Amino acid sequence: MQIILNPNQFDVILTENLFGDILSDEGSVISGSIGLLASASVGEENAMFEPIHGSYPQAKGKDIANPIASILSVAMLLEHFGLAEEAMAVKKAVDKSLKKGVVTPDLKENSQFGTNQVGDFIAHNIVDIEDDVLMNDENIDLGKSTII
Predict the structure, then answer these.
(1) Angle 68-80/115-127 helices, nearest 10 degrees?
(2) How does pLDDT run across 98-132, given as a tens digit for each residue?
(3) Can you give the C-alpha Rg of the chain in angstroms?
(4) Contact predicate 144/72, CB 8 Å
(5) Is 103 exposed, middle or buried, given 0-12, 13-18 or 19+ CB atoms closer than 10 A?
(6) Burial of 89 by CB count in 10 Å (0-12 exposed, 13-18 middle, 19+ buried)?
(7) Based on CB atoms within 10 Å of each CB, which residue in 8, 43, 87, 100 is the most buried?
(8) If 0-12 CB within 10 Å is exposed, 13-18 middle and 19+ buried, where does residue 74 land?
(9) Which residues contact 29 (CB under 8 A, 6 or more apart)?
């Protein structure tokens, strides 16, 4: 109950796998989509970074899966290896995608963007985060992320 009522009180929650799955699914309601939540399992010698949601076989071939959790998992991986600047570039590109509305339908019901377009938009903006001046917002509204 507390994770939903007051999520800011938690920094880390340590739990066994089944209960962790339940909490992460409940917590996804706070962010608006399970497709936004990255995770890490870090041990003394090994670490694994992945979205909290696991596989999504129902989306195979439909270009509807939200890639943001996978991308943010990469940002966590970069931080784990001490690449803070690179991790921040990834996070800023994701933030830009969210602010510009370049998102999959799980976040914006009538979105014209699919998995590939969202991923491509974010990838481009990791490299060129300052491209706001040259971005044609009209094309984004039409479902294209053309940079001019």
Answers:
(1) 40
(2) 999 999 998 999 999 999 999 999 999 998 766 55
(3) 16
(4) no
(5) buried
(6) middle
(7) 87
(8) middle
(9) 4
